[in-house]
């Protein structure tokens, strides 16, 4: 059976951005929706970004890690460099996704605080 990743056919097009929308700090809702739609369109559940990470001893971990690296790489191409530079200490797409949601979604005051501190 082909893995989810093999059905994505992303490897030859690794430089292809996930979306033409680049996260700039003010367009999080549009950007996050575009990322989710891209993943759905490639046959990958967007829940990869929120599901629990498999244990490193799990038989699915190697597959998950490969998929995550591809998703993370593609996500980073859809983020403005000024934001991207603050993400270098995150190891997974899920960590980046969670951080960006916390920073830029309108779910709290963090976005406003960030803007005020600039």
UniProtKB/TrEMBL annotation:
Which residues does the UniProt record annotate as the domain Retrotransposon Copia-like N-terminal? 12-42
- Pfam families, alphabetized: Retrotran_gag_2 (PF14223), Retrotran_gag_3 (PF14244)
Q: Which domain of life is it from?
A: Eukaryota
Return the PANTHER family for the record. Answer: CCHC-TYPE DOMAIN-CONTAINING PROTEIN, OS01G0909600 PROTEIN
Name recorded for this polypeptide = Retrotransposon Copia-like N-terminal domain-containing protein
């Amino acid at each position: 059976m082909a893995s989810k990743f093999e059905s994505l056919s992303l490897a030859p097009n690794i430089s292809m951005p996930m979306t033409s929308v680049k996260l700039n700090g003010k367009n999080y809702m549009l950007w996050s929706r575009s990322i989710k739609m891209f993943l759905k369109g490639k046959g990958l559940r967007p829940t990869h970004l929120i599901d629990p990470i498999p244990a490193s001893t799990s038989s699915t971990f190697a597959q998950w890690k490969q998929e995550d690296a591809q998703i993370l790489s593609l996500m980073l191409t859809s983020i403005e460099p000024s934001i991207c530079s603050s993400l270098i200490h995150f190891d997974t797409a899920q960590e980046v996704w969670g951080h960006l949601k916390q920073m830029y979604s309108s779910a709290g005051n963090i976005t406003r605080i960030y803007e005020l501190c600039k």
